[in-house]
Amino acid sequence: MRNKEKEHKGFVDNELGISEWFGAIIRYLLNFGKKEFNNIYNKEQFKKNVIIGYIFKVIGIVVLFLFIFWLIGKQ
């Protein structure tokens, strides 16, 4: 039981970490590099980065499915 809890926590931590990185990179690119990356990727900005990264991933999945349906419909 204890190993499963650790495994699940690791998955959640990885998912948040990926969302945070996507969010920080997107925010950095939207600022055209005017702000330093360290100012965007820090503990104070964690929640913003995760939310933006999560929205980016959801939009990416929706676009992927739309593209697949478009390819299927084209046949």
Structural notes for this entry:
The structure is a single chain. With 75 residues, the chain is mainly α. It has one domain. The chain is 83% helix and 0% strand. It contains three helices and no strands. The chain has helices at 2-30, 37-40, 46-74. Helix 1 crosses helix 3. It is flat. 9% of the residues are buried.
Sheet having the most strands: none
The end-to-end span amounts to 48 Å
Pick out the low-confidence regions. none
Report the structural category: mainly alpha
Beta-strand share of residues: under 5%
Q: Gyration radius, to the nearest Å?
A: 17 Å
Query: Percentage of helical residues?
Result: over 70%
Query: What order do the SSEs take from the amino end to the carboxyl end, as H and E?
Result: HHH
The overall number of domains is 1
**How many β-strand stretches?**
0
Look at the structure and give the mean pLDDT: 86
Summed up, the helix count is: 3
Q: In one word, what is the shape?
A: flat
Task: Describe the SSE topology.
Layout: H1 2-30, H2 37-40, H3 46-74
